[in-house]
Structures are given as C-alpha cells and as structure tokens.
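[recover] target loaded
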C-alpha cells in the first residue's frame, strides 16, 4: 500500500502526551481548587493523573462542561448537607455555613466571590427545601457583606435574594432589617477592612446604590413589602444624640426610597418630621446668643458622607456584633425620657442640635424642590385649537408631576395635622409646610382652610390647646407669607372677625363658656398681629371721590367691641403684640388703645382668661408665633424669598403721625429696644427706664431682627389630644 495514500494508517497521528478518548472529557484545566468539600465530593472519581491530560487550548464547549461539572458537584454537596442536617448530622452543613461567614478580624469573605457565586447558584435549586433548622445558613448569607464585593457577585446576590424571598417569605423580615441597617452611616463599618476585589475604591454612594437596587428589586416582587419595611425603618433611625453625618446619610437614603416606592412616602416623611421635632424642641434659645461661641466640628468641616471612601473612615476594629449593639442602643426606639435628665445643656450641645436640624431640614427642602423642579412648563392650547389624542396624552403625562406634587402636599398636610400642630414650641420644622404652601395658591388656601377648621369650627370636645395653636398659626402665617395676597389676607381676617363677633354675642347672652376663653384671646391676638403686618391690605379700594382716605373692611369694626369688652384682650394677649398694635392702630387712625393700656396697669388679670387645666399657661399660649424669623443658615435659603420681614412693612417716620403718644404710657414700649424679662420672655424696654427718648426707632424697628416669641426655656413637646372632630 502506498504509504502516502490518504487511506494509509500512517497518516493517523497519535496524541503527543498520554492517551485520548472521547469519553475522557476532564482535563487538567478542570482540576481547580474549589475547597475541601469539592474534593470530598469528587473522591469517587478516577485518581489516575493520566486522565487529566494537559492541553494547550480549551474550547468554549469544554469550558461550559467544566462549569456544569462544578455546579453539579456543588449541588450534590448542598443536597447532602441539607439532608444530613435534618438527620442530626451537622458537620457538612456547618462547613457550608462557614463558606458565607466573613473573617472575624477583617470582616472580609473567606471564600473568593467566584466560588460564592457557584454556591448561590447551587442553593437556588433547593430553596424550597430550606427548613427552620436551616436558618443559620440563610442568616449567614443575609449577613454577608455582599455590597462591597465585585459587580458580578452583587448582581448574582440580588437575583438570589429575590428568589429566596419568593420561595421562603418567612425570611423577608430578616432581609429587610439588614437592608434598613445598610442605609445607616454605621453600616460602613462592615466594609472598613474588607479585602475588596479590584483597584477601584468604593464609596458609600456605591454601597448605598447597591442596597437600593436590592430593595427596589424586592419591591417589584412583593407588593406588600412596604408594610413590613416601615417599622424597620423606624427602628434603625439614628438617635438624636448620634452625629449629624448619621442623620444625613440615613435621611438621604429614606428620601431616595420614596422615589421608587411612593407607598412609603407618607410614613418616611412623617418619621423624618417626628425626629426633626425631637431636635427642634431642644433649641429654645435665640441663635444670636450662640454667635460668640465656638462652632462645632460639623460646622468647621463640611463633607458629604456619601463620598467617603470605604475603608478610610475611622476605626476598623469594630466587628459586626459591635455594630448591631451600637445600632440597637442608639436607635430611635430607645427611650429619650431617661436621657432628658442627663442631656447636656452647654453651648456645644445647642450648636450640635442647631447644625443637625439645619442639615435635616435642608435635605427635606432639597427633596421637595427636586420634585417641584421636575414639573415641566405646560403650554395651554388656544381656544381655536383642539388637541388630538397624541397631544392629550402628552399633556396628561406633563400634568402627572404636578399631581405628584399635590399628593406630596396632602401628605405633608396630614403630617402637620397629627405631629407638628400638636407639638408645642417647635421653632423651625413647621417651615417645611410654609415653603411648600408657597408653590401653589391652592396649597396655601388648603393650609389656611385646615387651620381655620381646627381653630374655629372644631367641636366642643376638641382640645383647647390645639385650637389655640391653630389660631396662632393663622396669624403668623398670614402675617409672614409673602405669597398670601391682599384678597387672601382679607378673607382670613373676615373669618376671624366673624368668630370674634359671634363669641361676644354669646358672652352677652350668657351662652359662652366662662371657664375658657383661650381660643377667643388667641384669635384676637392673631388679628392684632395680622393688622400690624398687613394693615395696608385691610383697606377697601377708595373711589375717585375719597382718594387718600382710609376705608377699612367692614368686618374689622368688631375690634372696637373686642377692645372695650369685659374680656379685656389688651390685658391678656402678648404685650409685645398689644403695644405694637396700639401704636399702628393710632398711626393709621384705626383705633386708640393707650387709655385702656394705662388702665390695665392697675387692673387685675381677668378671672375668666384661664385655659384648659393642665395645659400651658396663658403666657405660653399667647407668645407662640410659629413663623418667627428663620435663623438656620443652610436651610434658610429656601425661606428668604417667600418670607415677609418686618422691615418691609413697618411704618416709617413719614407715616407716624403722632409719636408723642408714647408719653401717655409711662412704662409703654419703645420700638426697637428689648430686654430679657421674667421667665425668659423678651419684653420691650421703656424710655423712662432707658433714660432717653425714642429718636431713631419709630414704628419701623419693632418685630424686626429679633423673634417676638419668648426666648423659651428648654421644654419638651406637649402632646395634644389626638381625637379631633373636623366639621
């Protein structure tokens, strides 16, 4: 036979090294080091090294065969470990749990992420077989610092957790609690010493992004998830003693959560407002008193906690158990009653609280502003143009953000009703609603409507303190809100004056309660305050024959009855407001009050001017001005453009027709000069006490750069009655 023939046996080459058989599919490249479990599971395979022949090139099919072989081996081991655990043999199961347990000293995974992905793949096939006795394995997987690992593992982990919760819903609370804890600033401790794969450093922003990706994935799978998550968000909220960075990180994550889970919006905002109020009520000093003190570290070194690189942020010696303990001890659920006695009262503590509240409110303002800025400008079609179906769909889509803005306002309004209004002496948190109401005239009308309903039309069983607080809000809001126009101010005053007239009528016929006129006094004070700020808007438009003559709206006529009534509100209401009203009323030819004020100096306090037993006293109730000047520097940027300062509306020297009337009251107030009175109240000084005349003050220097609320002592919020009947 021709040796060169293509049929010759000599043309058949033998392998260069060792025998080859199509049935022998495992090569040396497949002899990888998995772990001791893989070796144990493969002990039944032939040990002849000649079977694992080294070949220079591996085809795609062989790589796939290799991966399938690994997965089959891991799955076989998982099945065996789970079964033996049920039979009372825990060795293999415990070894499996150790695969997901991080190193105790470094908090880093002890197994490469590529191998952990194979374990997760194997476990995904047996999720339905996980019993209660297998819980340690699930807990180890959930506690794994997965968010610090490579992107491929993160993707696999998110998919696996979704499959786990779908198959075993009983583990939902465990997973959600870990996610909520992952939103905290302290959660970075888990990754401080982790041996991260790759050279790119991870920031908290990346870690938080991954936590949100997992949570959003679960939201899409489980519609009832918000009800399970809400209490866990409360539990992990930072305690008010924790630093500003802790609050900033957690609140930013909560607000971001509302962007993809609107069902949590009201609960999240309510939670943030409640915690802001806890900080707010501790700031019962004028911020001018802190100007000469040393700033806190948070004021000296501003930084974004989201941009902090993981592993470069402090002590890495705290292990995961220490983290859990610290979060438990400092969670918002921890009782603050026991802390009140030990709470520091020094200037540094007040500085910390001021800076913390400023940061919290700024975050919420930014969140609202982002939502408002997302609303596009909608061009209304002309009357001769009828939009087609496509245009109508487009306009409907454009109106959707405004609907979302309105929904957010109603949420905030509900939070105000149940929290802010019922917290006595808060100073800044209520400005969230003040600013939001400025976005749309409908919002300010709704806010005023709620306040009027609470103050004037509540049932007889309604809490008197809450009605007084609502009355104070009306006066302060109408006085200070630039976006309340002339018609709005007049409508508010007309409603208040109608109530005063009805109350006086009831007193005359003996139908009014003689034990509690606190709402009446609060309404009177609100009208006085509004008059001081908005007296120009409370006049009718004069006709052409009466140019230059002041014609007041007819409803204001009841104030003459109010001032001269036996209830004597000039004696009971805040003297700062009363004296300023007297000056402006005289300067505008509206009323003359100085003779009554002089007589009141010798008159006793009205016996029927009391308030609800056990509630704050008259001085507290009638010196509460919710929208006093806003002093927080960072969040104050949102208030500046919508807030009416006293300097913009005060009567100047050219309008003050008779400043000599100050002499009629020996101890009357001189605008612009104030001193600290008893019980911490800020009261006006007098010319006689100063020993000088009022030359530069005039009526343009009161209510100005200072707050007309008292410099309150450190107080706690007074819980008001929850049951309110709204007519």
């Amino acid at each position: 036979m021709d040796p060169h023939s293509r049929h010759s046996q000599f043309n058949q080459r033998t392998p260069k090294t060792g025998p080859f058989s199509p049935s022998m599919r495992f090569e040396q490249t497949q002899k990888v080091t998995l772990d001791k479990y893989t070796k144990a599971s493969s002990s039944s395979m032939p040990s002849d090294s000649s079977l694992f022949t080294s070949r220079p090139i591996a085809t795609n099919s062989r790589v796939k065969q290799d991966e399938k072989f690994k997965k089959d081996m891991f799955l076989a081991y998982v099945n065996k470990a789970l079964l033996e655990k049920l039979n009372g043999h825990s060795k293999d199961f415990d070894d499996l749990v150790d695969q997901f347990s991080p190193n105790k000293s470094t908090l880093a995974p002890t197994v490469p992420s590529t191998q952990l992905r194979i374990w997760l793949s194997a476990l995904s096939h047996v999720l339905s077989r996980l019993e209660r006795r297998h819980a340690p394995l699930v807990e180890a997987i959930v506690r794994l610092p997965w968010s610090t690992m490579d992107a491929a593992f993160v993707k696999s982990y998110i998919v696996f957790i979704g499959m786990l919760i779908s198959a075993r819903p009983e583990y939902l609370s465990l997973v959600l609690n870990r996610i909520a804890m992952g939103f905290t600033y302290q959660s970075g401790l888990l990754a401080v010493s982790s041996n991260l794969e790759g050279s790119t450093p991870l920031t908290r922003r990346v870690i938080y992004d991954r936590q949100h990706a997992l949570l959003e994935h679960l939201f899409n799978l489980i519609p009832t998830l918000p009800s399970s998550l809400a209490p866990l968000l409360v539990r992990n909220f930072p305690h008010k003693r924790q630093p500003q960075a802790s609050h900033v990180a957690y609140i930013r994550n909560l607000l971001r959560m509302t962007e993809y889970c609107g069902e949590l919006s009201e609960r999240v905002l309510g939670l943030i407002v409640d915690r802001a109020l806890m900080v707010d009520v501790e700031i019962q000093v004028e911020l001018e008193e802190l100007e000469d003190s040393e700033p806190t570290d948070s004021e000296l070194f501003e930084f974004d906690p989201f941009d902090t690189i993981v592993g470069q942020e402090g002590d890495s010696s705290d292990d995961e158990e220490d983290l859990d303990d610290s979060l438990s001890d400092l969670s918002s659920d921890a009782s603050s009653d026991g802390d009140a006695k030990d709470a520091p009262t020094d200037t540094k503590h007040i500085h910390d609280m001021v800076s913390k509240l400023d940061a919290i409110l700024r975050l919420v303002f930014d969140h609202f502003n982002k939502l408002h800025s997302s609303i596009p400008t909608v061009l209304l079609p002309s009357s001769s143009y009828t939009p087609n179906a496509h245009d109508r769909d487009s306009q409907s889509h454009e109106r959707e953000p405004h609907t979302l803005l309105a929904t957010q306002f109603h949420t905030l309004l509900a939070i105000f009703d149940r929290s802010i209004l019922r917290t006595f002496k808060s100073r800044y948190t209520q400005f969230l609603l003040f600013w939001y109401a400025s976005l749309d005239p409908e919002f300010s009308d709704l806010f005023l409507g709620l306040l009027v309903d609470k103050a004037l039309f509540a049932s007889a069983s309604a809490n008197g303190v809450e009605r007084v607080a609502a009355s104070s809000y009306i006066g302060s809001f109408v006085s200070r809100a630039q976006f309340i126009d002339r018609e709005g101010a007049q409508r508010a005053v007309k409603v208040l004056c109608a109530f005063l007239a009805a109350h006086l009528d009831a007193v005359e016929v003996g139908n009014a309660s003689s034990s509690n006129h606190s709402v009446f006094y609060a309404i009177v004070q609100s009208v006085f305050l509004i008059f001081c700020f908005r007296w120009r808007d409370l006049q009718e438009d004069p006709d052409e024959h009466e140019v230059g003559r002041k014609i007041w709206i007819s409803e204001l006529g009841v104030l003459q009855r109010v001032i001269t009534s036996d209830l004597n509100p000039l004696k009971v209401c805040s003297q700062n407001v009363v004296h300023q009203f007297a000056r402006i009323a005289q300067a505008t030819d509206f009323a003359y009050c100085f003779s009554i004020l002089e007589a009141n100096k010798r008159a006793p306090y009205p016996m029927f001017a009391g308030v609800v037993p056990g509630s704050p006293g008259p001085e507290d109730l009638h010196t509460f001005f919710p929208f006093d000047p806003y002093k927080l520097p960072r969040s104050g940027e949102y208030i500046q453009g919508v807030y009416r300062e006293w300097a913009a509306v005060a009567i100047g020297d050219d309008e003050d027709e008779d400043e000599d009337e100050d002499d009629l009251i020996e101890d009357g107030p001189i605008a612009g000069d104030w001193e600290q009175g008893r019980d911490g109240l800020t009261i006006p000084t007098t010319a006689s006490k100063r020993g000088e005349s009022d030359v530069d003050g005039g009526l343009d220097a009161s209510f100005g750069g200072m707050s007309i609320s008292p410099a309150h002592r450190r107080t706690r919020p007074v819980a008001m009655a929850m049951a309110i009947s709204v007519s």
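[recover] notes: Residues 30 and 69 are 9 Å apart (CA to CA).
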